[in-house]
Amino acid sequence: MIASIPEGRYAVATSGAKTYAYGCMTRVGITPPKVTITADDKRLKAGKPAPDPFLLAAECLGYNASDCVVFEDSPSGIRAGVASGATVIAVCTSHERSKIENCGAHYIVDDMSKRGQ
User: What domain of life is recorded for the organism (predicted)?
Assistant: First the structure.
């Protein structure tokens, strides 16, 4: 999916530290995007569940958060995405559906493995 998005049109906003986030992305073959907001980013006033990471990522990309889509797998991240004003797609990969279905996501999917026809 990431390969289908033009460079400069997506970001990563994570609760992980920079070293951890970059290491994880690299290990799975993802080149970290230019806009990668991590928990230790000095520009953040608050982390998730505050909307700040998503608001900062959107700003760095030159968009309003309301024009963005957030894919999230954690309750705090889902709440942060919703609070930012973005459209939120909750992904049931690290938490059971019952743990995330009442967090306000606009959509819930089991995983991100299916491709459109």
Answer: Eukaryota
